[in-house]
Write a structure and sequence with these properties.
By secondary structure, this protein is α+β, with helices and mostly antiparallel strands. Helix content is about 30%, strand content about 15%. It has two domains: about 70 residues, no CATH class; about 45 residues, no CATH class.
Length: about 120
């Protein structure tokens, strides 16, 4: 945890490692953690990974530390995270923009930002 807090976590990123799908989240006006740490970590993972999985960075603008926003923003954040997870787990049908969990079909929010 100390490495993550100091931004040294990216020093542990190793070229040629098959990193899993990753969604890093940051806020542009975060007063606790410099957003540059998330940008550098994202770049390091993208450069190093040998897997074809996405390494994405979601930056919230006009927001402070993630989790301290309004209810609407929190709902949108969780919808994006859920859409990312469902996509990576194979639940989202790209052609129909829908989710197909064991039997039923649920419409996915188009404004989720995860493509």
């Amino acid at each position: 945890m100390r490495e993550i807090k100091t931004g040294l976590g990216r020093c542990r990123v190793r070229k040629g490692t098959a990193y899993p799908s990753t969604l890093l989240i940051s806020a542009n006006n975060d007063d606790r953690v410099d957003p540059m740490h998330a940008r550098k970590m994202t770049a390091a993972l993208q450069r190093a990974t040998s897997a074809g999985h996405p390494i994405l960075l979601r930056t919230y603008y006009e927001a402070a530390h993630v989790g301290s926003g309004m209810k609407k923003q929190l709902v949108e954040e969780y919808a994006e995270r859920l859409a990312f997870l469902m996509n990576e787990m194979g639940f989202i049908n790209e052609h129909q923009g829908s989710v197909s969990p064991a039997g039923g079909t649920i419409s996915v929010l188009e404004h989720s930002g995860v493509r």
